[in-house]
Specification:
By secondary structure, the protein is an alpha/beta fold. The chain contains nine helices and seven strands, in the order H-E-H-E-H-E-H-E-H-E-H-E-H-H-H-E. It is globular, with a radius of gyration of 18 Å. The relative contact order is 0.15. It binds NADP nicotinamide-adenine-dinucleotide phosphate. Residues 16-23, 40-43, 46, 69-71, 96-99, 119-120, 146, 148, 191, 193-194, 196-199 line the site of NADP nicotinamide-adenine-dinucleotide phosphate (NAP).
Length: 257
């Protein structure tokens, strides 16, 4: 009974931004739960290295890779049409691709503001909308949007990122308002500070590192593996009545002042 609740055998999962970092860890977790994985990124060489790694571990028929830019509406539509035709309909979508840009708001160029908002927020709308059309027809699906502790908390120098991740919370709710009645569960995972390439400079910064340890009740950085269990739960039958929620996986950072 317990394993059936979390079993993804026969399901197909698209994880955006899965050539590395959190997306790659989530993709591994969903593969281990039985899913066929569609990997994505923009750097084709990095994506191919990850695809080959998955093919060795799970078998060639359990992994595919589609390089496309999640901010390009036409490219998104074309990629999803071809993966649904050539592989299988998408049962699980994880909107994970994202970027950071650290500049105080007064110095932030509008082009950089737009690049962050488009990559982190508009992409989830574009990929979500395209995948949801098929999910609505089939009357089932799971969408996980990757949020952040910046969905709830602000810090200087990351204004565009904070706005984009706050937007992810309400996009998750908006999708739920319109699509939950079609058998689709849409939720968000909000990771705390996770040690990845995106945060390597912060890990190396002694002052920032000690701020993180002091600010986190669990007194450590998160690992990409910390995100995997919640991702399997929100992709599986175990979360059948969980709708529109943001699940914070942050060692308790957002519950203390
Ligand atoms: P990462 O290591 O920098 O990896 C980012 C991934 O996104 C890469 O696979 C990258 O592909 C892909 N990507 C970026 N722009 C893209 C685009 N326009 N189209 C398609 N793919 C694109 O990042 P991460 O730390 O794993 O973060 C992943 C997600 O978790 C992001 O949404 C981030 O905001 C969120 N998050 C991270 C942390 C953290 O502490 N790391 C905390 C909270 C939330 P390429 O390899 O081709 O560039």
């Amino acid at each position: 009974m317990t394993s059936a609740l979390f079993d993804l055998t026969g399901k197909t999962a698209l994880v955006t931004g899965s050539s590395r970092g959190i997306g790659k860890a989530i993709a591994h977790g969903l593969a281990e739960a039985g899913a066929r994985i569609v990997l994505n990124g923009v750097n084709t060489e990095r994506l191919e290295v990850t695809r080959a790694e998955f093919a060795t571990q799970y078998g060639d028929d359990r992994v595919a890779a589609y390089a496309f830019d999640v901010t390009d509406d036409a490219a998104v539509t074309q990629a999803i049409e071809s993966m649904e035709q050539d592989i299988a309909p998408i049962d699980v979508l994880v909107n994970n691709a994202g970027i950071q840009h650290r500049v105080p708001l007064l110095d932030l160029a509008v082009e950089d503001w737009e690049r962050v908002i488009t990559t982190n927020l508009t992409s989830a709308f574009l990929v979500g909308r395209t995948v949801a059309r098929g999910m609505i027809e089939r009357g089932a699906g799971k969408i996980i949007n990757i949020a952040s502790v910046q969905t709830d908390l602000a810090r200087p120098t990351i204004g565009a990122y904070t706005a984009s991740k706050g937007g992810i919370r309400n996009l998750t709710r908006a999708m739920t308002a319109e699509w939950a009645s079609h058998g689709i569960q849409i939720n968000a995972i909000a990771p705390g500070y996770i040690h990845t390439e995106m945060t390597q400079k912060l890990v190396d910064d002694e002052q920032f590192n000690s701020w993180i340890l002091g600010r986190t009740p669990a007194h450590r950085w998160g690992t990409t593996d910390d995100i995997v269990g919640p991702a399997i739960w929100l992709s599986s039958p175990a979360s059948a009545f969980v709708n529109g929620q943001v699940i914070f996986v942050d060692g308790g950072m957002t519950v203390i002042v």
